[in-house]
Amino acid sequence: MTNVPRMAGVLAPVVTPFGADLAPDPERFVRQCRWLLSQNVGLAIFGTNSEANSLSVDEKIELIDRLVAAGLDPTRMMPGTGCCALTDSVRLTAHAVKVGCGGVLMLPPFYYKGVSDEGLFRSFAEVIERVGDARLRVYVYHIPPVSHVPITLKLMERLLDRYPAQVAGMKDSGGDWGNTKAFLDAFASAGFDVFVGSETYLLRNMRSGGAGCVSATANVNPGAIGRLYDTWRNEGADAQQGRLDAIRDVFQKFPMIPALKAAIAHHARDGGWATLRPPLVALTAAQASALTGKLEALGFTMPGLDPC
Amino acid sequence: MTNVPRMAGVLAPVVTPFGADLAPDPERFVRQCRWLLSQNVGLAIFGTNSEANSLSVDEKIELIDRLVAAGLDPTRMMPGTGCCALTDSVRLTAHAVKVGCGGVLMLPPFYYKGVSDEGLFRSFAEVIERVGDARLRVYVYHIPPVSHVPITLKLMERLLDRYPAQVAGMKDSGGDWGNTKAFLDAFASAGFDVFVGSETYLLRNMRSGGAGCVSATANVNPGAIGRLYDTWRNEGADAQQGRLDAIRDVFQKFPMIPALKAAIAHHARDGGWATLRPPLVALTAAQASALTGKLEALGFTMPGLDPC
């Protein structure tokens, strides 16, 4: 077994830039990822907020390769690699491991609903076995509001029992702290790393033995979220959490992914960032203006985000 | 505009056979499709019951090509080509058109939930425009219990208004006759072809101006379902519908896709047919035995299904 450092802290599910032809734009993507790393935020590329499921496997492999070729550190990358099709998940996961990614965030196959824990166990097991690489670290992705395929405690127990080295943790995007707490209580003391899916729960998660967060708004507010992670044991942490919540509240008044892109477009002075792939659509000009206005009222900035 | 004959009648969402290594088995697939055509049932390959979303695009293209190479009539094929990723949907749809498929059954992108009609319109429009072939016939796939992304009347109206030649019809697998009737009332008289997603509604659909059905159980009971379609105007049609319902009721007591495969395995004397790709799992031996027992009690047979 090789000695892979555990991933921890704050990661951004990096939003994916598209050109006018709706093709992914590797140059903008590399630049954004470099900026996020400079803010001490890791790269959960191909998450829900990345429109990852609107990309083909080939498009995702090309984007990973471009990041690595640009010299970005793959140990800071946790690409989403769980697809509907077993063969797609295997191919993408194997590629992520091959280039040295620190971990992968794995959705269950999400087309079929009401599937059994046995079927989900086999899905994850087949991917782990077929990738067959001791360096693989899987973070299981629980996001029932979108996937409609929840991950149960019993399933995780079985996966950990069978693959203790490969199953490294989870991301809980269910928005139910009680569920997060149940996973923390059950598994964290054994070294299982729980990332919450929103910085809303970051302080609670750290105080309960969690590992960090993978949050939409880490795309736009990375420095401040990273600071709370670094200083959560300090006095003033609750006030920091309150300020993060205020910023997040603004974004939550809009469709999240278009709002993240609108904010980046505004602060980077690069209108191309506002493009989304269908079925998602950009904010209207009025919405974008309302968003940036509310953010300015809170003194929100994106320091170091270079205009292009 | 070329003169493509409209698809009509009964189609099976053909179940996909897998080897012990979980790879699709083209030989069994060709044999099964040939048998279905001999029963006068069309080939809605890559439907929900085909475990299509557990297959990669490459695997689907290979299976279409094998059918065509084996001499099966592509005008009887309505492959499912709607994927989460725009580029996957375009690639698979273009391939289906290239080999001469009579139509394609198109899911909306189904990962993101609560998306707008504007976003869904753009999704379908981008695929139609990028495929850019006058031969393309799209049947829009409404299956909210699985996709959680419903197709509204307003969306369909807009698609028909913009692409009257390409948008040929729909499959309604919502299980709500009121919804089917609303689509029939709104669009059938203009030549829009509504297929119901279960033979349960076949007689009602035909009496209301529908085009046929694409039904799970057409995989196992094709002859009898096809007969009702051929003779729905005749006396005795209601009694025929009753007999179809009794057979379907048996299958519905079990997980449908595993039950279809178990029935084929039993009647073709070919245990390999029982294999499913995760996250789906085969019936237990006890379930399979209960299924075949109940079917025998109803005098169910699969005439002409060759043992291999």
Indicate the radius of gyration of chain A in whole angstroms. 18 Å
Q: Strands across the major sheet of chain A, in which order?
A: 2-1-7-6-5-4-3
Pair with the most extensive interface? A-B, 39 and 39 residues
Which percent bin holds the helix content of chain A? Answer: 40-55%
List the uncertain runs of chain A: none
Number of strand segments of chain A: 7
- Main beta sheet of chain A, described? 7 strands, parallel
Backbone structural class of chain A: alpha/beta
- Give the helices and strands of chain A as they follow along the chain: EHEHHEHEHHEHEHEHHHH
Oligomerization status of the protein chains:
homodimer
N- to C-terminal distance of chain A = 43 Å
Q: Please indicate the percent range of residues of chain A in DSSP E strands (runs of 2 or more).
A: 5-15%
Distinct helical segment count of chain A: 12
Based on Cα principal axes, name the global outline of chain A: globular
Q: Kindly state the mean pLDDT of chain A as a whole number? A: 96
Task: Describe the protein's architecture and organization.
The structure is a homodimer of 308-residue chains. With 308 residues, chain A is α/β, with parallel strands linked by helices. Chain A contains 12 helices and 7 strands. In chain A, strands 2-1-7-6-5-4-3 form a 7-stranded parallel β-sheet. In chain A, helix 3 packs across helix 4, helix 4 packs parallel to helix 6 and helix 9 packs antiparallel against helix 10. The radius of gyration of chain A is 18 Å and the shape is globular. Chains A and B meet through helix 2, helix 3, helix 4 and helix 5 of A and helix 2, helix 3, helix 4 and helix 5 of B.
